[in-house]
Design goal:
Elements (H helix, E strand, L loop, with lengths): L7 H7 L6 E4 L3 E5 L7 E7 L14 H17 L10 E4 L15 E5 L8
Antiparallel strand pairs: 1-2, 2-3, 3-5, 4-5
The structure holds guanosine-5'-monophosphate and zinc ion.
């Protein structure tokens, strides 16, 4: 499940497709959504190609835990106001009926002052 030639998010993680980077480490890449719904809207992806939440297993527990604990820190850094007045929304669309368009697991983190374009 690593870096298929045709996966846009694998290419973004590898830097072969440009993006506005928020954060990067050995396993995780974070970048601004190209079509934001909210004043703050970034995507968190594993560098490894996991198609969706439907494919996660015990071997991904540490990675997903790190992504979820990183999200609040990055949300504040990107301009979300602190909880409880501010906050953010975390969404992971999974599969066609879940509204997933890009089949490389990603966590949407959205926040900032209302109203939002969507959501
Ligand atoms: P999904 O519908 O799969 O949950 O979300 C895919 C998200 O990826 C959408 O919000 C869309 O705007 C974003 N997206 C799609 N292609 C690109 C791209 O090339 N660059 C960036 N930065 N975001 C993208
Ligand atoms: Zn991929």
């Amino acid at each position: 499940m690593s870096h298929p030639d045709n996966c846009i998010f694998c290419k973004i993680a590898a830097g072969t497709i440009p993006s506005r980077k928020v954060y990067e480490d050995e396993d995780i890449f974070v970048f601004h959504d190209i079509a934001p719904w909210a004043p703050v809207h970034f995507l968190m992806i594993p560098k490894a190609h996991i198609p969706s939440m439907a494919q996660v297993g015990a071997e991904h527990e540490a990675l997903l835990g790190r992504m979820m604990t990183l999200a609040p820190k990055l949300a504040l850094e990107q301009g979300c106001r602190p909880y409880p007045e501010g906050g953010f929304r975390i969404v992971t669309n999974t599969g066609a009926e879940g509204g997933q368009e890009v089949h490389h697991l990603h966590i949407h983190v959205m926040g900032g002052p209302r109203p939002w374009l969507r959501g």
